[in-house]
Amino acid sequence: MKILVVDDEFHIRKVIGDYLRTEGYEVFEGTDGLDCIEQLKSRPDVDLILLDVRMPKLTGFEAIEQIKKITDAPILFLTALDESFDEIKGLNLGADDYITKPFRYDILIARVNSALRRRKALKPTVFESKNFKMDFSKREVKIFETPVTLTKMEFELLEYFVKNNELVLDRNRILDSVWGYDYYGDPRTVDTHVKTLRVKLGEYGEWILTKRGVGYQFKVE
């Protein structure tokens, strides 16, 4: 799972990053609120954001509204020990939880794991629209109740599109998220799989829009 750690202090980012990587998480780093927003535009599939409150350029409080327009990933604010007002304000602004600095390893991991469990429990397992149905847990796609046979990669690519509905996704980000960061094949494999998906989905293939020079966007017309 992917976690974005945003803090203007390098040593804080390093400590948190090391903790999370030890637990098996994939970690990205941001230096301030503006950097966080720019990273999310190309990486909207993060599973959780650890966001410091006091940062230059754009604080955590100032950034959260824009962040929520890009992703529904849970946000855990990082606050100083004596800033209880910040904790209340952060929760009122839409943060899912907060962690006070300095923090203990076990507390940090427990809060992160708890937020991710809540997110998983709330995630929809089925997408339905206009006689199209995709069941993520059963890995099934049906059109007018007729099963559509997809390969493993076709299903995962379509799942990625559906879960990032209406977001413009560049090819490299699609490759990293669906094929994995260790994929070294031809980047045009995305185009090939999109082509076969469109054919198999028939009229619903029109929901996968080509964004020339960038990548693709899934949008229910």
TrEMBL record:
All residue ranges annotated as the OmpR/PhoB-type domain in the record: 124-220
Keyword Transcription regulation recorded: yes
Residues in Response regulatory domain copies: 2-116
Entry-linked Pfam families: Response_reg (PF00072), Trans_reg_C (PF00486)
4-aspartylphosphate modifications at: D52
InterPro entries: CheY-like_superfamily (IPR011006), OmpR/PhoB-type_DNA-bd (IPR001867), Sig_transdc_resp-reg_receiver (IPR001789), WalR-like (IPR039420), WH-like_DNA-bd_sf (IPR036388)
Transmembrane stretches, start-end: none
Keywords: DNA-binding, Phosphoprotein, Transcription, Transcription regulation, Two-component regulatory system
Secretion signal span: none
DNA-binding region, residue intervals: 124-220
PANTHER family: REGULATOR OF RPOS (PTHR48111), TWO-COMPONENT RESPONSE REGULATOR ORR33 (PTHR48111:SF1)
Protein name: Response regulator transcription factor
